[in-house]
Amino acid sequence: MNWIESIQKAINFIEENLLEEITLEHIATEANSSLFHFQRTFTILTDMSITDYIRRRRLTIAAQELMSTDTKIIYLALKYGYESPEAFTKAFRKQHNVTPSKARKKQGTLQAFNRLVIQVKLKGAEPMKYKIVEKEKFQVVGMKRTYNWEKGENTNGIPLFWDEINGAGMDKKLIKLNNGEINGVLGVCVSDKNNKALIDYWIAVDHEGDVPENMLSIEIPSSKWVVFEVHGPMPEAMQNTWKQIYSEWFPSNPYEPAGTPELEVYSDEDPYKPDLYSEIWIPIK
After folding, report:
1. Global pTM?
2. 178: exposed, middle or buried (C-beta count within 10 Å: 0-12, 13-18, 19+)?
3. DSSP H or E stretch at residue 264
4. H runs (alpha helix) in 168-216
5. In the chain, count of helices (H) and strands (E)?
6. pLDDT in tens, 213-229
7. What domains, with CATH codes, occur in the chain?
8. Cβ(31)–Cβ(7) below 8 Å
9. Alpha-carbon distance 30 to 6, whole Å?
10. 45, 121 in Cβ contact below 8 A?
11. Radius of gyration for the alpha carbons in the chain, expressed in angstroms and rounded
């Protein structure tokens, strides 16, 4: 089963159990994946988290029931997973821009999020350049931050982390420490083995030797890697390449992600250059 089929299977499971108390771990199991890797892949392909999808779908169906029945709002709140009418009203208004009571009176419009169907689009005009390499374990050194990805902290936190590093001139210090085989500043995402809701995000470089003062290190395991070229300004080029990898390359090739840390490799050039060159390194099996 390829990644597209796995994610569609998980979406079908969500839809069949939309009003049940289903855990993210159970959903990932349906896709034969680790929770971290499934959530990451789902977000890349759909531009939303699993919890966002479940919330939007529940509120879409709740709006349909609100408009077609006279069920009390307090009962709808409990049915769709909210502890109080107030919490339900707040979430409902955030999605639909109208309160449940006004919606029932036909005041305002509703916003529907339909059931997802993942499709692979065949694109011949955008070829992907990549190579497969084998690399022994290596050390990266730098700084890290921990984020709760279930709460979406990484979405806003990681760009702010990069701003902090660049603003303090730490990116230039890291470049000077870069004496390993991979040239550039690395963005490294590592799942927490003890708490599945957390990830460590590193801004670091491939460095051989002692760990500099005020920096941390992590060992990246020996792996077979697929290395993709990324051409264009940040962040759009990087985001588009990630989506192309998971929607086109993996479904068309006999590999799957190994589940160990993945790398984004950035040069020290102007990040907004139209022809900027970067890379994505994914360990495969």
Report:
1. 0.80
2. buried
3. strand 262-266
4. 170-177
5. 10, 8
6. 999 999 999 999 999 99
7. 3-104 (1.10.10.60), 130-284 (3.20.80.10)
8. yes
9. 7
10. no
11. 22
